[in-house]
Design goal:
Structural class: mainly alpha
Oligomer: single chain
Shape: elongated
Low-confidence stretches: none
Length: 140
């Protein structure tokens, strides 16, 4: 499986000169220190949910069978046991993105057709922002 394809395998994580990146698409994303450390730890000691010991699987999150990645359901269960509520985390992430990106970019990038509603809820009206920037240049 090539980088950028999902599910994640160990080749998606790259460390160069102390910088850790994850390949989720064409451009790798640099991970902040706490997340980078967790990613490297997962690569080093990845465990299947059905196998107690280390696995030789290339999956970043191996499933019950070493030849298969963990299922979405099983991953969700692991996260719920840690107190991570997926729907809340997703909503929070989308809300934050809506404050930082124009709705058209958000919709095109994530395939979310309700991006304009997210942006309005986050009080990020980019048309007003663009108009304000335009006025600033004229006044300067």
């Amino acid at each position: 499986m090539a980088r950028g394809d999902l599910p994640l395998n160990v080749d998606h994580i790259e460390e160069t000169n102390g910088t850790v990146r994850i390949h989720l698409g064409a451009v790798p994303v640099e991970l902040p220190t706490p997340v980078a450390e967790l990613a490297l730890q997962q690569v080093a000691v990845r465990r299947s949910h059905a196998v107690l010991g280390r696995t030789d699987s290339l999956w970043l999150f191996p499933g019950g069978q070493p030849s298969r990645p963990i299922s979405a359901w099983a991953m969700g269960e692991r996260l719920r046991k840690l107190g991570i509520r997926l729907a809340q985390a997703r909503s929070t992430a989308l809300f934050q993105l809506a404050t930082e990106l124009p709705a058209a970019v958000l919709a095109r990038t994530l395939g979310i057709t309700v991006a304009v509603k997210w942006q309005r809820a986050a009080a990020g009206d980019w048309a007003v922002y663009a108009a304000e920037i335009s006025r600033r240049k004229k006044d300067a």
